[in-house]
Design goal:
There is one protein chain. The chain has 682 residues and is α+β, with helices and mostly antiparallel strands. It is 21% helix and 28% strand. It has 16 helices and 35 strands. The strands form 7 sheets. Strands 10, 11, 12, 15, 16, 17, 18, 28, 29, 30, 31 and 32 form a 12-stranded antiparallel sheet that branches. The chain has a 6-stranded mixed sheet with strand order 6-5-4-7-8-9, with helices on both faces. It has a 5-stranded antiparallel sheet with strand order 13-35-14-33-34. The termini are far apart.
């Protein structure tokens, strides 16, 4: 064996694993501090108030930043032990949350490998707070007491008692040297319950028959595939959203990843960074569609000169970005948003005739939840939901929510036209019970004392001595005497009398300015987006224009900024995805970011590159509009077809809970599926 197991953390330098330490209850990232920093201690967050928690995080920051060389010399487990010792001292005798709340206990249930195990080597998760004897019992239970298994604690792990902080009797566990593990790997099968050990084994050429880990997204990165549970969604059944959600396919609570072969190119031992080469060939079904001349795909690295001109480069250059564009005739596809019950992996989406999946709209993000909870004691009823306005046609009726911000709309008509417009309205009508209110642009109802308050200034206290009815989409969340604060994800109607009881459904109707289609022909509209090109004009052509345009859209109010996990600044370099249209064409462009080979793009670069890619295919073309979709870790563009392997056209970026950069599980996607007649023509 070349090194102790597991590897010291510095061994993961220049890999995505290095960006975020994930061990036990901690998730830490400091490589881009202070712009992007992650400090999560799941146990401390349950025990400490906001001020004490921030003090503890400062101590973690000091340990990991000031003593960076020491931190990097630790293995992930050793650093975890150090952090736990420091936390125990900081808490000064406060009782630690029992191990039964650990991720291991919650996530790994009885599992069955669906095959006989003649010789099984089980390695527990030495870094979880669950006692090892409990882990072993859970891991070995499917085989019974007579099975020929070995529970192994690698001899290099001499600090296991220190790591678990308790002494436990581990039935049938033995300590074995590394060379014996090699031998057993050749004779039997190794099961790992800890990702860091699995990665170290792969580095040493040891194949793993299965890996169980509560951080399923972390393990999935080694497999280039995912197994996810569908988290419970919290949309009340009274809201119309509940009827249009797609269920998330779930394998249940079993989280097992099989056959981690160190020699197979598909698996990436230790998360070693791959360059962004499109080595996954474009599927044959998609290639055949391109022959119709109604679909074209362009991928590669692009470099922008000082004069602003773009050029495709076959080699990697500093400053080059990786991008993919799909351009298609509008009449060959059908577009619709996919909203999920919880969060779903984009890789779970498939189409009978083939289709594309892309980022869509911004959702309720963790930083927004934390900020909101700090000033409003009312518990949040939703786990994930769309922000701003959404409308969808159900039968003959267009069901609408209430618009929160004056931001760009993206819509689709019943005759297959994709359009965009400003998010400016002249009147919002609210029907609730037997009452009807008509709110003008100033938020006032001309016939009553009722007034609509939007979340532009969420620090503003409203409704003193008034009845305050808080709406989220079409659902009455809260009714009480004021004062209240307007949540960044809803609106408040103040009135002199009580409008209704909580839990009922409201009906909203919005009169929009300058919609390019009639409301009777709308299939769906989504709000809360930002325009890059409007009416053929690039409104983010320069940094200065981008700033003024974002101000005009209202992106720089406090609530608006906090609705974005990747805050939208005019100069921010991030992964991006956008959609636009010209003539009868629909264009989707996605840009890889947060990667050593492709840092990402600003809004200005995104719009400029999209126009360059369109012009490259059609020299006379000019985009009518271009709208920025969800970016950051949610940015994705790929294709899928039933019975075929998916293909990702850009490389997803890491996120807080996804350090390896697998396609992020999201509550929404934009689905673009090919119509059957066009597929058959080829």
């Amino acid at each position: 064996m070349k090194r102790l197991l597991p590897c010291p953390y510095t061994a993961y330098r220049k890999t995505r694993w290095y960006r975020r330490l994930v061990a036990g209850e901690f998730i830490l990232q400091f490589d881009q501090s202070p712009e992007r920093e992650v400090i999560i201690d799941a146990i401390a967050e349950r025990m400490l108030n906001a001020n004490d928690l921030e003090t503890w995080k400062n101590r973690i920051r000091e340990l990991c930043m000031v003593n960076r060389a020491t931190w990097e010399s630790y293995s992930p487990g050793s650093l975890l032990a150090q952090l736990r010792r420091e936390r125990r001292q900081y808490l000064q005798g406060k009782a630690i949350i029992p191990w039964r709340t650990s991720g291991f206990h919650e996530a790994i249930t009885l599992w069955n490998p669906e095959e006989s195990a003649q010789s099984l080597v089980i390695i527990p998760d030495l870094y979880d707070s669950a006692p090892l004897d409990v882990q072993v019992q859970r891991l070995r239970s499917p085989w019974g007491a007579q099975s020929n298994y070995l529970v192994c604690l690698p001899a290099s792990c001499t600090s296991k008692q220190q790591i678990t902080e308790e002494t436990h009797t581990i039935p049938d566990a033995i300590e074995i040297p590394a060379q014996t593990i090699h031998k057993l790997a050749g004779q039997g099968k190794i099961v790992c319950a800890d990702i860091w050990y699995a990665m170290a084994f792969l580095q040493e050429g040891i194949d793993i028959v299965a890996c169980l880990d509560r951080r399923e997204w972390f393990t999935a990165a080694l497999y280039q595939e995912s197994v996810f549970e569908a988290p419970e969604h919290h949309l009340p059944s009274e809201t119309f959203f509940s009827s249009i959600l797609h269920p998330v396919k779930s394998p249940g609570t079993i989280r097992m990843f099989r056959y981690m072969k160190s020699q197979k190119e598909r698996y990436v031992p230790c998360g070693v960074e791959r360059t962004i080469t499109m080595d996954e060939q474009t599927p044959l079904w998609l290639t055949s569609l391109q022959k119709s001349q109604k679909l074209s795909i362009e991928t590669g690295y692009y470099l922008q000169s000082e004069s602003g001109e773009w050029v495709k480069t076959p080699d990697l250059h500093d400053g080059a970005i990786h991008a993919a564009m799909v351009m298609m005739d509008a009449d060959m596809v059908h577009l619709e948003p996919m909203l999920f019950e919880g969060k779903a992996s984009p890789l779970a989406v498939s189409y009978s005739n083939g289709g594309l999946f892309s980022s869509f709209n911004y959702y309720f993000t963790e930083n927004l939840k934390a900020w909101y909870a700090s000033y409003d004691p009312r518990p949040i009823p939703w786990k994930d939901f769309i922000l701003d306005y959404y409308a969808i046609r159900v039968g003959e009726t267009l069901k609408e929510s209430v618009p929160l911000y004056h931001k760009t709309l993206l819509g689709y008509s019943t005759d297959g036209r994709l359009f965009s417009s400003d998010g400016n309205w002249t009147e919002i009508t609210l029907s609730i019970g037997s009452s009807i209110f008509h709110f003008a642009e100033d938020g006032k109802d001309s016939q009553t004392s009722a007034q609509l308050h939007r979340p532009d200034n969420p620090d503003h206290i409203i409704g003193e001595e008034m009845w305050c009815t808080t709406f989220i989409h079409d659902y009455v969340w809260d009714v009480r005497r004021g004062p209240v604060m307007v949540p960044p994800f809803g609106v408040v109607v103040t009135s002199t009398h009580k409008l209704c009881e909580p839990g009922i459904k409201a009906v909203w109707k919005v009169t929009w300015q300058n919609l390019p289609v009639s409301k009777e022909s709308i299939a769906w509209i989504s709000g809360g987006l930002n325009a890059l090109v409007k009416n053929g004009i690039n409104v983010v052509e320069t940094i200065e224009k981008a700033y003024h345009h974002l101000v005009s859209e209202g992106w720089y109010t406090k609530a608006s900024i906090l609705t974005q996990e990747t805050q939208l600044t005019q100069h921010g370099v991030q992964p991006r995805t956008c959609i636009g249209s010209f003539k009868n064409k629909i264009v989707v462009v996605s840009i890889t970011g947060r990667d050593p080979c492709s840092k990402g793009a600003t809004f200005t670069q995104e719009a400029s590159l999209a126009q360059y890619l369109v012009t490259k295919k059609d020299p006379d073309a000019s985009l009518d509009f271009l709208v920025n979709l969800d970016g950051g870790a949610s940015s994705v563009l790929g294709c899928s077809k039933d019975q075929e392997s998916y293909c990702l056209l850009t490389k997803p970026s890491p996120s807080i809970t996804n350090p390896a950069g697998q396609p992020r599980c999201v509550p929404s996607l934009l689905s673009i599926h090919f119509k059957e007649n066009h597929h058959n023509e080829t």
